[in-house]
Amino acid sequence: MDFLILNEGFRTLSALLVLPLAGAIVLLISSSVTFARLWTLLITTIIAALSLPLYWGFDVSTARYQFGEHLAWIPSLNINYTLGLDGISLLLVLLTTLLMPICVLASWKYIKTRVREFMVCLLILETSMLGVFIALDFVLFYILWEAMLIPMYLLIAIWGGPRKVYAATKFFLYTLAGSVLLLVAIIALYIKTGSWSIPLMMGQEYSTLFQTLVFLAFFLAFAIKVPMFPFHTWLPAAHVEAPTVGSVILASILLKMGTYGFLRFCLPITPAATLTFMPYILGLSVAGILYGGFTALAQSDMKKLIAYSSVGHMGFVTLGIFVLNTQGVEGALLQMINHGVTTGALFLCVGLIYERTHSRELDAAEGIGKFMPIYITFLAFFSMSSLAFPGTNSFIGEFLILAGGFSQSKIVAGCAIPGAVLAAAYMLRMLQRITWGAKSNPHPEILSDLNLREVFTLAPLLVFVFWIGLRPEPFLSVMHTSVAHLLEQVHQATPHLMTAANLLP
Amino acid sequence: MKLELLFAPELFLLLGSLVLFFLTLGDSRGNHSKSVATVIGVINLGLCLFCLHQQGELFYHAYRVDLFSQFFKLIIAAGFLVVLLLGRALKGVRDGVRSEYYLFMLLSVLGLVMLVSSVELLTMMVALELSSFTLYLLVPMRDEATGERAQMEAAVKYILFGVVATGIMLFGMSYLFGLTGTTYLSYLLPQLRFMSDQPAVLVGIVMVMAGFFYKLGVFPMHFWVPDVYQGASNETTAFIASVPKLAAVALLIRLVTLVMPADHNMPLLLTVLAVGSMLYGNLLALVQKDIKRMLGFSGIAHAGYLLLGLLIFKDAGFATAIYYIMGYLVMTLACFLVICKVSAQGENLKIEDLAGLHHRAPLLALTMAVGMFALAGIPPFVGFMGKFMLLTQALKHGYLPLVIITAINTAISLYYYLSVVRVAYCTDTEDRPMVPVDGLTRAVSVVLMLLILAMGLAPSGILDLATSAIHGMPGGPFL
Q1: How far is A114 from chain B (nearest CA, A)?
Q2: Average pLDDT, integer, range B213-226
């Protein structure tokens, strides 16, 4: 257990997992709608407050897993309840905990029917999302990874738009079909190593064939989750039909699980296969960046536009991960957080218009700048962030990724550059039409500007846009050691293959 | 050791059926019989719990009481009690025969309880027939109005296929007897091991197993399943779908231990049956409209999953199979609880009849969703943990293609389970009436849901018990 620094005293990570569930059980007993909202807000805020000490207490000098907890769970199969946090998962956990209160606030008025059930789904979702990031036992990880599908399915299928059933079913089937082979791969790894512990599976001597098969199973599950081109088709459907908060959680957190999976499993467990497949994955990433950009350019539905922009942005993230150098991986990690903040905020913005006009069409939202100045201010900053304008968070992330990309392969990075230009094109097109539009909006009477609650929903995200954009060091410093350790694991295992990868132009 | 204590659950059930028999003479509407049967169910559960750790042999070694048998008796008793509770209204059964209905159901349970203790071929046969023939009778007792005469067809199919399966089984027994000159499993075991190169041994064992494949609904002995599930009343189907399968698994485990672990033909055969059951069950379930019929096909698929535990011939595999069938019992009963309650007059339910259930009966909708997700094998429920452990055991012994096929089947099956949840949660009621849910139903459904969750999260206790039960079997030391 030398990979784990056990936590003495208060078990913060377990508290993060148990608290939402406990809150959900209380909700099941109550019946008041107002209580449900307030209670969920309270619980998520407490969790957010609990998670902050994780950042302060985090030791940046070690790559070992911190705040660890370890209990035997199913002894006959050697399954344990192991939790831990390192520089890769820390920021994702904080993103999740801090985003949840915002989601509750954003659904305050949006969700009118079956509020209690909605909040129960949110809380169960929070447990499983946090669990995915902090689980260090593969069985625990898989259980939470799959269990998450149930509340997310219900979020889309009950509170979604007109084609909600189609979208929810597609989301569930697609994701589950991807992860059944993941289960087989996990079991195969267990049989090789005799342990379900994720860190113990890293750095083992597996044969090339075994690594290839395991990598492919991993890749299918995670690439669908990210989603990488060409596995992305569930994403626009799910985003368009999901309620605002569903889209926010989907974009900000669920998609990150795919890239987290690449970092946590693919790279350290199957390094040789990673290097073998690296050129293809880089190719898919670039394809995703360009495809997402071009498709976003053609959308008239705002949610679809942002959904396709997500495909492009996540293409940057996978690009950064698979260039396999410090800048690339750190940029990818930071970009995961950035995408969570920015795209989450953009979905909230679309939701705010939808609550007023009951339409997500760009046409219906044309020229509302005159009537909703505060709203437009927020939207402008978030759009700028989304197109990686210097001074905003995404600029730092994309810059690092492209810098890493250039040092690995000039062609790949060069191909990704138009993606950044496309992002500017589709984002500015949307912003321009919403702010000024060709004509004035047909329904000005329903356009009231943001109220205090809505400002409170968006403001924290804006703070992070500029914080990361202007001073990324606090965010980058926590990941340095872990990323260095991760890359060391990849390169140590396969020195001879590195030379092959270097032949890539 | 007191003889009575070894035989206590059986004696009590026999006594109970005598009481019920006298009640049938006067109480045709079955009001008293219902209360008496419920009381018998409760006491039987207590007795089985009390006798859990009894050890001994009876009737010239033909009847063995050990942890394995007592464990199964306990689960059968629990399943029987839940079936009685969820079918209390007995909506789908003709008024005039309700007393007899309880009598026959109790006798069937008696047969099953005796079956799991039988370690001699003829005893096995008698016990099996006692449980089967009473079960055949339950099917046509359905109300004409709700059954739409399908119950008669179902009953005929059930008995015809059943008799054929029994015939095959007897034929197989004659092989085993002819080869060894004995009908006692404990004498058969060493002798068959000695002759394991003879094809006749395998043929005999497989033919005997066919009778239990029939009970479990394994492909290709599954033909009765969809029609009987659909034709029998909801309460009867709940029973047929759950309790007899427990005994079938128990006996399959007993019989599989007769085969030499090094034998290659048996695993191959079971692999083919497993793959056939999974694919057949899941693919046909996809297109079903009637929810019971769908559950029937799903049951065939689950029988296929379960064979994964048997075909590796290891104690861990058998223990997982026991765990899986227990989980299956709980999941199926949860689904049938909802079906029985939602069906107002005892008629069959189409899947779309569950529309708006979240509004009509929120607790039942939740129970249905939990049951369906569990059957689909979504964590953290028992269906996932069972399937996960089966896959682990199978892969440990090198059945990679089989494991991959099973995993893919999980993905296929998700669609039809999900469509039930979708209808229950995402549709409007469309003037369908509210479903009244009484306190007892609430309690039972909460208990079932908690069991589904708890067994999924903490399987250790049951697994350990099942493993020690396996070790206590006559064939246990050979594993």
Answers
A1: 10
A2: 89
